[in-house]
Amino acid sequence: MKRKVLIVEDDSLLAEAAGDYFTSKGWEAETEKDGARVLDVLRKKSFHLILLDVMLPGMDGFGVCREIRKFCDVPVIFITARVLEEDVLNGYSLGADDYVTKPFSLPVLYAKAMALTGRVQKDPVFLEAGDLKADLHHHKVICSGKVLSLPPKEYAMLLFFMQNPGRVYSREQLLIRFWGWDFDGNERVVDNHIKKLRKAMGVCGCSIQTVPKSGYRLEIL
Question: What is the pTM of this model?
Fold first, then answer.
């Protein structure tokens, strides 16, 4: 089966060049200029990779990535002419997997794409922690045969903890990862979502524990 890439870039020449290069390597390439439309496309089609320009008309690449991560785990490589450290850190906090800066080499971009999608294809289809089982393909978490009712934010947070059991994350780390650097609220929003997540999890052989003065961790009981 061919790998499929979605190229989100308002520079038509650059998008065409990248699309032609990936097509020549046996991929299927689709392009999109409007960041907001990307979300509609992803709800109807699946891709192995998204190449996402940061500077887009309307919703910028950071906003697009933030929305994508609410319902989709597809790998994202940011394409940007901006090389500020805070932009790079912001992109990673929103769930981006890699960065390339303009002007870039198409062979280097393709090598990054192959390395990234190769790793992703080896990732498990399911995650397990205690009695919890996360079906990554169908975006649901099951406990004792019952599907948990989780909004996108709680679902993403639970997956993150299940991928990193036993590791402590501070409120600041969680706030940046799931709400971004530009979030106007305070760290209490993390506590509120953890509280909702604990309620949804119930008794499931693991729990998200508070580590005093440090943050939270997933403990398998």
Answer: 0.56
